[in-house]
Amino acid sequence: MRYKLSLLLLLSVMVLCRVSAQVNSSPISAGAFKQLQSKEDTLKDFAFYLTTDSLPEERMIADSVFTRTLVRALQIPFSFYYPFDSVLGVSKKYAPDSSFRIITWNLQYNDYYNRQRGAIQVNSKDGKLKLFPLRDASEFTDHPTDSVRTTKNWIGALYYNIIKKESQGKSYYTLFGLDPNNSKSTIKWMEVLHFSAKGEPIFGGPFFSYERDSIPKKPQPRISLEYKKNARVLMDYVPDLDMILVDHLIPENDDAESPWTFVPDGDQEGFKWENGKWIHINKVFTQKLQDGKAPRELPLFDQPGQQKLPPVKKGN
After folding, report:
1. Paired strand residues for 272
2. Does a structural domain hold residue 38?
3. Which of 45, 96, 174, 190 is a good FRET partner for 219, with 20 to 30 A between their CA atoms?
4. CA 76 to each of CA 18, 99, 123, 143, 231: distance values in angstroms, whole numbers, following the listed order
5. pLDDT value of position 5
6. Which residues contact 20 (CB under 8 A, 6 or more apart)?
7. Looking at the predicted structure, is the pLDDT value of residue 132 above 90?
8. Residue 40: inside a domain, yes or no?
9. Structural domain for 33, as ranges
């Protein structure tokens, strides 16, 4: 019993220290911090209902309440510095330079219809809210990869990474996002976000170049990758390589018209940032091993299958 009480006391002290550190390391006042904590509790509950309720109408109600509560929370001075860590199922990604963050979440209507919600919160010096709501217009276009877009006709995604690159003194932010799409397939998205002279977000542009391919094609404003549900597919920036890696996909049944059957084949394409654009590399890893030359340590059998015995040490 004493052990449990001591453990509970220790955990309580750790939580209080964490809260105190958060307050002291940010411009959020103590009163505002308490308000944000209260809002966070409400957001946490409705985020749970939003992703787990079995009835679509209840998920829609949870989405509505969540959205209104989130806007009220962000209106609290310097809310930009509050991470909302306990609100699960909602992506909260900060730009590497902390100039903004993107908050995104998914609303599933049924097995075949998902839409994303979101907003960009800009870091302001006076702590006042500067927010750009994102309106998912995916359902209103048949060609989502070939256009430059604004917050009013955004291609929805749940962002899982943001990286920053620069060119001629201007900042460009590459976004990596996921769309649950439907019961058969998932889509990953990659595009570049930058801000206009007026400070307004612009999604896409001629940033993905195929000029060095054997058969060049026009630049793409954004890249999409649709694949079989639950397949593990890489589309992300790899810091060690300073490069974006993208799994190459093939259909399981040789039907190129059925992206819900696409899975990785082991090869990877890449993109390298040069002169303000991502240059496509058709195949990143080109090294091949000859047949029978795969590395193996201390093989148990010699050819053609006889057991390999360890050498016998001779006495002195």
Report:
1. 279
2. yes
3. 96
4. 21, 18, 13, 39, 41
5. 42
6. none
7. yes
8. yes
9. 29-79
